Amino acid sequence: MKQLGVLDTAFINLEHANTPQHVGGLGIYDPSTAPGGAVRFKGVIANFERRLHKHTIFRSRLVKVPGNVDRPYWVQDANFDVEFHIRHIALPQPGDWRQLCILVARLHARPLDMNRPLWEAYIIEGLDNIPGVPEGGFAIYTKMHHSLVDGAGGSSIMSVIHDLEPDPAAVPQAEAVVTADVMPNSLYLASSAAVNNVRNTVKMVTGGAGVLRDLGKMAIGMAQKKIPVPSISSPRTRFNTPVGPHRVFEAAEFPLADIKALKDICEVKINDVILAIIAGGLRHYLMHHKELPDESLAVSIPLDMRTRRGMTDENNQVGSVFVELHTNVADPVKRLAGIYKSSQEAKIYGENSPLVDVLRLAGVMSPALTRPLVNAYVNNELTRHLPLGITSVVSNVAGPTFPLYSAGAQMVRYYGLGLLTPGVGLFHLIFSSNGIVTLSIIGDRDSMPDPAFYRECIEKSFAELFAAAKATPKEDAAATAPKKASAKPARKSKASSSATANASVQKPVAKKARSSASSSAAKSGAVKTKQSASSSANGKVVPISQPQS
Predict the structure, then answer these.
(1) DSSP state at residue 509
(2) Which portions of the chain have biased composition (kind: Low complexity) (predicted)?
(3) What backbone phi and psi angles, to 5 degrees, belong to 541?
(4) Do the Cβ atoms of 423 and 401 come closer than 8 Å?
(5) How many angstroms separate the CA atoms of 69 and 51, rounded?
(6) What mean pLDDT do residues 137-163 have?
(7) Spatial distance between the Cα atoms of 333 and 497, rounded to a whole number of angstroms
(8) Which residues are designated catalytic?
């Protein structure tokens, strides 16, 4: 039995029917690599069950303290039923990319059962009309509560539920040891809560003094212009309205080689290139709806805090900073240069500001106090009165640099799915693998009723940035890029949003591609199942998915 940490508890306290606090992922698999060239649902379940014992979080169930007067506990569920957590469904007709997006959005909108281990997986068949998906290919959509895992930890979980070889049965396995906790009684939980409340009070007092001290140092640094002042006056958009219970999902894909080429030409970071693509996409989308503000939009970037405060036993070790997107700049190369400068300033600010941990406030107090406040905040739509307008959260999660398999089927594509908060109805998640960068979005359906059009805006932004960068002489691009910040903070912090992996998995050639042509497909260009050197050199998008109208 283990008590949740402060930040892990924050995600439990923030759970609401309109904004469930789970993250997810969608993998697409090629069964031709499996023994016999096919995969059965029973084989997928057996593969999951065989590997689940390697990580305790899959059997961890939440136990609340009586009266919610203390943080809850994780216990190893003695009645764990793997077949409850893994479901088998088929894509409705016509089985195209649009149908897959609708299905995944609906699955992602549903809250998890808080009385069971907080994860689910869906094996999805019927991907019959998605060009680039191998014949017989299937998808696995997974979702897991954020209290169990953060973005940086999520990549390690992927390696837990996947194999490194197509024939796992041929590899000797250690004997599985499954443990289960004895359910604690109410007297034990109540007495532990009394002791913990005293400890927590002491920690709050000493921690508050430390925060005040750090705030004082930060204020002095800002006054001396050693620490940049963050932008807190970004304009609000349609994505800052109260978030409803329904979701949309979409994804765009880009050759990793082209992203790296842009990075080298403009002398910036890969994460800056991704932010510039998103900035251009938001600019096109809001201009189309005649809603583009005159001032720059800003996004929140998660920070991996493991290197900042050391390893802890909490599942979540994440903070956040704000970065301006310079959406008020028309030139894509100059916009990228501005984003680079803003991201460097945000990094310095994040390394010196205690406010990057502001999310922990939702887990400091007991759930008995925090839960009613969260419900009142969401139910009364108090987000309308927030002065800060963060258009989106943008997270960049490192993908594997080696092939992964599920029941022998090789993963050929992966899309990450984030979560929405009451005041931010758009989440971008970037994932790189197999030489492809996927940029996935989860949005509030009321705020973004046209996700396919937004994907087209993202693809248009990438094409414009690539063309402009290639047309700009390298010396001019270097002159446009701002100099790196000279301030050297005492502590270093690693941004999880800037983590990108080089992929070594070769993309398999599809045996059969069934197309459902649309007008947007014609605009986006032909879909290819095998990337050529010329496509990368010309900056073309090479999606596995079928663009939708």
Answers:
(1) P
(2) 495-508, 515-530
(3) -75, 135
(4) no
(5) 36
(6) 79
(7) 21
(8) 146
Q: Where are the beta strands (DSSP E) in 391-541?
A: 392-397, 405-406, 409-417, 426-433, 436-444
Task: Please report the domains of the chain, with CATH numbers, ordered by start residue.
Answer: 2-471 (3.30.559.30)
Cα pseudo-dihedral 110, 139, 428, 143, rounded to 10: 40
Does residue 61 register a pLDDT over 70? yes
Q: Residue 198: what pLDDT?
A: 55
Per residue in 229-248, pLDDT tens? 666 668 999 999 899 999 99
> Contact 417/214 with Cβ under 8 angstroms?
no
Pairwise CA distance, residues 328 & 108, whole Å: 33
Distance CA 534, CA 261 (A): 14
Structure tokens at 106: 């609906």
In the DSSP assignment, the letter for residue 422 is: T
Place of tokens 């640099």: 401
**405 burial via Cβ count (<10 Å: 0-12, 13-18, 19+):** buried
Q: Calculate the alpha carbon distances from 500 to 265, 305, 347, 399, 425 in Å.
A: 18, 17, 17, 7, 25
> Which SS3 state, helix, strand or coil, does residue 409 take?
strand
For the chain, the 3-state helix, strand and coil shares in percent, each to the nearest 5, are: 40, 20, 40
